[in-house]
Amino acid sequence: MISVDTHIHTLYSHGKATPEEMYEAAVKKGIRVFGFSEHSARPLAMSYPREYREHLAAHWDTYIEKVTALKDNNDGVTVLLGIEMDWMEGNEEFIKSELAKHNFDYVLCGIHFLENWGFDYAKADWESLHQNELVAIYEKYYDTMTTMAETGIFDTIAHPDIIKIFSCDQFSTWIATEKAQALVRKALTAVRDAGMSMEISSAGIRKLCQEIYPCENIMSIASSLELPITFGSDAHSTMSVAFNFDKLEEHARKFGYTESVYFKNRKMHSRPF
Questions:
Q1: What is the tally of helices (H) and strands (E) in the chain?
Q2: How many domains does the chain have?
C-alpha cells in the first residue's frame, strides 16, 4: 500500500482546503509521509490568464507557519515542507533566491511553461495545432527537462508527461517512436544523474487525458534506468488526497518497482509499498 503523498496544494494558491484539512484527509487515508508542495512565486512574465499570484503572496507566511506546525503531530505522520517550483529557463537566479527563503524538505520541479506560455491552462491553445507542431512542442518539453535537471536545483520531476494533457492521442503516437524514446531517455538520464526522482501522479486521471502521469512507455524507460520514483496526487481538495493510489501502485509494480522515495532535509529516503 502506498503511504507517501508528496504533491499537495492548499487554498493559499488555487486549492480548496486548508493545510489542516488536507492533513486530516491524509491521516484518514493511511498516509504516513505527507508532503505539502505549494506553488512557487513566478516572475510577472510567467503568467496564466487567471492568476493566483497575489493571493499566494499575501498568505505565504501563514502557509509556512501552518505546515510547520503540523510537523509536530501526535499521529506518527512525517509532515514535510516542500514546494513545487516552476522551471523557468533563464530565471535560475530567481529560482535560487526563492528557494533560499525557507528550509524546504524537497523541491518538486513543475514544468508548466515553455518560454512564457503556460501550456497546461487552456485546451483551446492546442486545438489548431498539427502533428508536426505538436511534435516540436513535445521535443521542446523534454529538451527543457534535460536542461532543468542539469542545474542540480531540484529533487523530483513532477508529472513528467504533463505535456500530453490536451493532446493525449497525438502524444501516444509520438512517444511510441524511436526518436521520441531516445529524447525521453536522455531527459530521464539527466534526472537520475542529478540525484532526482520521478513522480508517478494520479492527477492525469482527473484531467482531460484521463491517464496516469507518466505513461507506460516512459515508465519502461525509467525502470530500465533504475530511476527512483515517488508518488503524488497533486491534490487541490481533500477528496483528491492519495487519489487512486491503488492504480498508481499497480502501475509502478508492473515495471518492477517495489519502493518509492521521498526527500527530507533535501536527502533521499526510500520506503517500500
A1: 9, 11
A2: 1
